[in-house]
């Protein structure tokens, strides 16, 4: 079905075929997810069956999972990409779209197959992937449940005397033992002055009383990711900390109510930014409001002042305002499914309360 | 120091500059590791200071960590790569080497800066990174200790009735709570018939008596990875299982004794392959003996029949023979530091004993 939709795009764009090498895109079309770096290629011609070319090491697993395409083992000793060059030349394609290519392979292909024009069209697959179908939404809901488990585990174990990475360990363990396939991205546990770094990851810093602790984390289920951030204050929040947290919750909620099909992504961002600007803090909101999530943790559409995206039903996006003052930062985030008339929060873990 | 060495290579190869965009390479030169997908660029000219170009979101963290180069914030609204195009044009470089580029950026740069020739030379940085210095070896030894902790945790919790992903959870938790920055790669816990897949990852399969369970895992410390595999049999091994495990240990050890500076990587592979061939099982050893490890889990040099690499002191490589029969597979693996006259196993976790 997804391959059929891709073929329609090929026809519209007058392409003879699409060469897919991004492993998540290959999984999207075939159901086979290989390990990072595996040199797979899926060739989808406008006419005829799609073929997945695999190295010997991946062949058996690919055959088991990829039922909707031919699977060809590229024999040992043949560089997998020489096989693709030959295929493109043999089939006499004149224009082939591709999703992505490592630079060495791109240079090799353009040299080997002079008669075929290669056209980089990331949107060929990106356009499909940004609208999630029912099965994908089921997987993302399960990923969201596991993500909530991680957020709660983190909130429960944060206290003075614990190291940031120990909190990260508890978060990831709680998700993993319930079936998460790993961390959706490197877990952020950024405490005290480190909370001012939006991408603070986690260190051996010992959390102390009065710290803000930003925890940004996600689970993975059937390859689909989810994303949540909760900020906790250790002990009683200062009035400044409380004000910032309240403001973020208000901004997040205001943006959330704007989410629906047909709305401009930048308008959703503007809602949150306006709430924060009313308190004069918008210059500390140094990133976009959100991003799409799915097989990748960051994918289209983008919610930011510069975005030209328009939300569609089936998009899954984050709603994550943040304020980063010198020495103290905070962010809250949920993952939201876009419907025709509203948004639906997939992550539901409680907020920090005081 | 590392930048100075890079500049020497630039001079030898008559390049005016090197453009570094791989985030691990940027970390290698500057000490600043950004999150996946961050659009950083490090420009190292033959003459003068290196400059790290960062988006606003990464600027403060980059300034804190990257002490040996200029750090320039690319203002909001300017696509980071337009800034690089301008820099290359302004400086009138004629040939610039680069380590890697996302295809869209490569196409943009070649269009924008017609007067500069871009030359893809992954070995410019790769050649440096494959020989680890003292600090890197310290980090890798610490990563190896954490990796051993994970392997032992896995061996302790494998038993009939446990799901594969539960074992993966225990492995990752044990490493993480002692300071590992995450899993070096998606942990493999492949049991029963799944052991026959070299890259089996982990599923919800319930482990049963008589299963072989292949656990392939690694920790991360200061960005440096380590890699270990242990295969366990649940209950008393069958004579076939015992024979295969014994053969793998013999093959691994035989290859290990061949590791030293100056030896051809393919000769080390051949040692293991010969031991396995003597029992007629070499056609089930379907991958190379090993790979380099460092900031990446797979990096040069490669130990395989086709490899043209020669080992150097300071290389860190895996020694991992595997045999994959229909329905039953096994692999054992350690990470080995290459010295002038011998190898040194960095991972030391006990083997499965019966």
Description:
The structure is a homodimer of 354-residue chains. With 354 residues, chain A is of the alpha+beta class. Chain A folds into two domains: 2-129, Creatine Amidinohydrolase, Chain A, domain 1 (3-Layer(aba) Sandwich), CATH 3.40.350.10; 134-345, Alpha-Beta Complex (Creatine Amidinohydrolase), CATH 3.90.230.10. Helix content of chain A is 36%, strand content 21%. Chain A is built from ten helices and 18 strands. Chain A has helices spanning 2-12, 23-30, 56-65, 80-91, 103-112, 123-129, 134-157, 164-176, 239-258, 265-277, and strands spanning 17-20, 41-45, 51-54, 70-73, 95-98, 117-120, 188-191, 212-217, 220-221, 224-225, 228-233, 290-292, 299-303, 316-319, 322-325, 328-331, 334-338, 343-345. The first copy, chain A, has a six-stranded mixed β-sheet, with helices on both faces. A three-stranded antiparallel β-sheet of chain A has the order 7-8-11, with helices on one face. Chain A has a three-stranded antiparallel β-sheet with strand order 14-17-18, with helices on one face. In chain A, strand 17 and strand 18 form a beta hairpin. Chain A is elongated, with a radius of gyration of 23 Å. Chain A starts with a helix and ends in a 9-residue tail after the last strand. The relative contact order of chain A is 0.11. The model of chain A has no long low-confidence stretch (mean pLDDT 95). Chains A and B meet through helix 3, helix 5 and helix 8 of A and helix 3, helix 5 and helix 8 of B.
């Amino acid at each position: 079905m997804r391959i059929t939709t891709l073929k329609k795009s090929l026809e519209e764009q007058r392409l003879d075929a699409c060469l897919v090498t991004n492993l998540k895109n290959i999984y999207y079309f075939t159901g086979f997810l290989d390990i990072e770096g595996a040199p797979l290629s899926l060739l989808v011609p406008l006419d005829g069956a799609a073929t997945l070319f695999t190295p010997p090491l991946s062949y058996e697993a690919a055959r088991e999972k990829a039922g909707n395409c031919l699977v060809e083992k590229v024999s040992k000793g043949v560089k997998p990409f020489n096989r693709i060059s030959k295929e493109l030349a043999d089939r006499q394609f004149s224009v082939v779209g591709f999703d992505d290519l490592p630079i060495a392979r791109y240079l090799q292909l353009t040299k080997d197959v002079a008669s075929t024009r290669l056209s980089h069209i990331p949107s060929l697959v990106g356009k499909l992937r940004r609208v999630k179908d029912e099965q994908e939404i089921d997987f993302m809901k399960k990923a969201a449940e596991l993500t909530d488990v991680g957020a709660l585990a983190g909130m429960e174990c944060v206290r003075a005397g614990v190291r940031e990475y120990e909190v990260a360990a508890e978060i990831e363990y709680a998700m993993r033992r319930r079936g998460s396939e790993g961390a959706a991205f490197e877990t952020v546990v950024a405490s005290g002055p480190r909370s001012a770094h939006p991408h603070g990851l986690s260190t051996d810093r010992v959390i102390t009383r009065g710290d803000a602790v930003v925890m940004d984390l996600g689970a993975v289920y059937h390859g689909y990711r989810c994303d949540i951030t909760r900020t906790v204050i250790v002990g009683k929040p200062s009035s400044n900390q409380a004000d910032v947290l309240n403001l973020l919750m208000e901004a997040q909620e205001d943006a959330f109510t704007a989410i629906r099909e047909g709305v401009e992504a930048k308008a959703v961002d503007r809602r949150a930014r306006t709430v924060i600007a009313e308190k004069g803090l918008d210059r500390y909101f140094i990133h976009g409001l959100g991003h799409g999530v799915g097989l990748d943790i960051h994918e289209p559409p983008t919610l930011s002042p510069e975005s030209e995206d328009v939300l569609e039903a089936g998009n899954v996006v984050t709603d994550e305002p943040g304020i980063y003052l010198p020495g103290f930062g905070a962010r809250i985030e949920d993952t939201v499914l876009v419907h025709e008339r509203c948004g639906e929060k997939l992550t539901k873990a409680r907020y920090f309360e005081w």
